[in-house]
Amino acid sequence: MARLRPCAILLAALLLGAPPGQMAAAEAPLNVTVEGLKPGGVILGVYAYCIPAKKGHETAGPNRSPEIAWSKGPSGTRSYVLIVVDPDVPTVFTNADKEGVTIPASMKRRPWYHWLLVDIPPSITTLPEDAGSKDTSPKPAGPSKFGVNGLNDYGGGRGAYDGPCPPWNDAIVHHYHFEVYALSVAHLSLPSGFTGSDVVQAIQGHVLARGEVVGRYALNPAVAKTLH
Fold first, then answer.
1. Is residue 135 part of a domain?
2. Which end of the chain is less congested by CB atoms within 10 angstroms, N or C?
3. β-strand 58-60 against 50-52: which pairing, if any?
4. Which pLDDT band, with edges at 50, 70 and 90, does 161 fall under?
5. What is the SS3 assignment for 10?
6. Smallest Cα–Cα separation from 23: which of 216, 180, 204, 189?
7. What is the pTM of this model?
8. Quick check: is 2 in a domain?
């Protein structure tokens, strides 16, 4: 299956900086839950963009977005932001998905954004299953009934949610952070087609609370067998 990983997009993405999970701790916690995922557990294949193939290495997954819920933010919460990010993506893809080679664990890594949803109204504390995706077809960025979707890092103008699809020859497990932020502003006023770095910068100084659930996923059989 072709991956949407244009070199120009990858090079530009190296400038994104640290993923939001490495930001300073917020003043209060949010209790975040993700359907079918215990903290530190394995993400189900139904929520993945790529799954192991019966023949070959990988095939298209169902790519459904899971139900995500969180506790109500503190007084003064005027909106929420959802970020789904994998900080373990290789910075160099020369050997990605290539027979006879392995992407070493020592390779420098960078964040890869799978879903950016901002301006979520304070009345919403649950995103139902399929709110961000129900298949692998491209979804546009822009307004939805749950908030405003940004561009994810799969390229080709894809917005909303696209699930895990790590290189099948990567030596490490990938970690997926489902992060929710309670903000003191109702709108971030981001430009059309905003990216992960735009969101990270825009929420600075507005975070009242945050919470996350981290899931794991791997397509490398030697790595995947260590997850269970």
1. yes
2. C
3. antiparallel
4. very high
5. helix
6. 204
7. 0.89
8. no
